[in-house]
Write a structure and sequence with these properties.
Layout (H helix, E strand, L loop, with lengths): L30 E5 L8 H15 L3 E5 L6 H15 L2 E6 L1 H11 L5 E6 L5 H5 L6 H10 L2 E4 L2 E3 L2 E3 L2 E5 H16 L3 H14 L4 E7 L2 E7 L1 E5 L2 H7 L4 H5 L3 E6 L4 H12 L9 E6 L1 E6 L7 E6 L2 E6 L2 E5 L4 E4 L12
Parallel strand pairs: 1-2, 1-3, 3-4
Antiparallel strand pairs: 5-18, 6-7, 6-17, 8-11, 8-15, 9-10, 9-14, 11-12, 12-13, 14-17, 15-16
Helix pairs in contact: 1-5, 2-3, 6-7, 7-10
Length: 339
């Protein structure tokens, strides 16, 4: 893996080839919509009215499944996908990136088309694919846009559409949720929560990283694996092209003092992290992560698209061999240039 601060592995055309790309039978069947009103604004009445109006005007049948408790989401997603398969329908996730993640997990490999109605704070997945945050506009995309294959990341077989991480980043996400419950969901609140977490202290991890048979021991406060080119661009990392070519972007932070970490937080807010000397980045399609010294640790806390889970070690990150068939505009996303 070398000692360069910023590193991108060479990706051949063969290595970047997409996985199986057999399109679902159709994307014109009834819509099976999993709606999580706890995401973002979460106005169930407004979203339901928009869905009824749009589907009624288009003559499209729909079934709305509302998530009452977050713990129910994985089960409801699986049941909804099963119903959609039987009816030749389209599976739709209405919520933030965490909701999209859970529904995509159930949809991947099912043969069903996948649609999204973004409702979250950041909406990286929807924005990167040109899907509007406005529900009425997103419904027009859902009802009329074509199917296109989309890359999916996996960690130990668990889907991530935007990113997966361990160490400091999951800690930031957990503590940010407490701030959101007290002060609401917004970018300023998210930034303030991150600042408070860094001031409170954090620990570094000793990891063993293996890529293409080559291993390296590292000490880092956090490992971040990205699968979203828009997020890479907005943070200032030159990794968007690698993701467009079929890779994942792995980013590690060197051990730094707290004041330096605060400076990095500010640089991230202004999209300038890519030039920071304290970061190591590489592009790869597979990455194995284990604890770098003798330990009794058998599992570790991982964040996937903002949701915290415990996963067994070692962690196996990879580009999914199966693509997710997303209903999205045929033109490039407005916030990004074409690859």
């Amino acid at each position: 893996m070398g000692d360069a601060t910023h590193q991108a592995s060479a990706l051949s055309d063969t290595a970047c080839a997409a996985g199986p790309a057999v399109a679902p039978v159709k994307n014109s069947g009834p819509l099976f919509i999993v709606f999580n009103p706890g995401s973002g604004a979460g106005d169930a009445e407004r979203v339901g009215e928009a869905i009824r109006d749009a589907c009624g005007a288009a003559g499209r049948a729909f079934h709305l499944v509302t998530v009452e408790r977050p713990a129910e989401l994985p089960r409801l997603a699986r049941e909804t996908v099963q119903r959609a398969r039987q009816a030749g329908g389209v599976v739709v996730a209405a919520g933030g990136d965490g909701t999209l993640n859970a529904v995509a997990q159930a949809t991947l490999g099912s043969g069903c088309a996948f649609g999204v109605l973004p409702q979250g704070t950041f909406n990286y997945f929807g924005r990167s694919h040109g899907i509007p945050a406005d529900t009425a506009q997103a419904l027009q995309v859902l009802l009329h846009a074509p199917l296109q294959p989309v890359q999916v990341g996996l960690v130990n077989g668990r889907v991530f559409l935007v990113n997966a991480s361990l160490g400091l980043y999951p800690q930031l996400l957990e503590e940010r949720e407490g701030w959101k419950q007290r002060f609401g969901r917004s970018r300023p609140v998210a930034f303030a929560a991150g600042l408070a977490t860094l001031l409170g202290g954090y620990r570094s991890l000793r990891l063993r990283i293996e890529v293409l048979g080559q291993g390296r021991d590292v000490r880092t406060p956090t490992l971040f694996v990205g699968n979203n080119a828009l997020q890479m661009e907005q943070l200032g990392f030159p990794m968007a092209e690698a993701i467009d070519r079929g890779a994942l972007a792995a980013i590690m932070l060197k051990p730094v003092r707290r004041l330096t970490m605060l400076g990095l937080l500010l640089r991230g807010a202004f999209g300038q992290l890519g030039a920071a000397d304290q970061l190591v980045s590489l592009a790869c399609r597979q990455l194995t992560v284990s604890i770098g010294r003798p330990t009794t640790l058998r599992r570790i806390k991982v964040a996937t698209d903002g949701e915290i889970v415990w996963l067994p070690l070692p962690l196996e990150f990879a580009v999914s061999p199966e693509t997710l068939w997303l209903i999205r505009p045929a033109t490039p996303a407005p916030e990004r240039a074409a690859p």
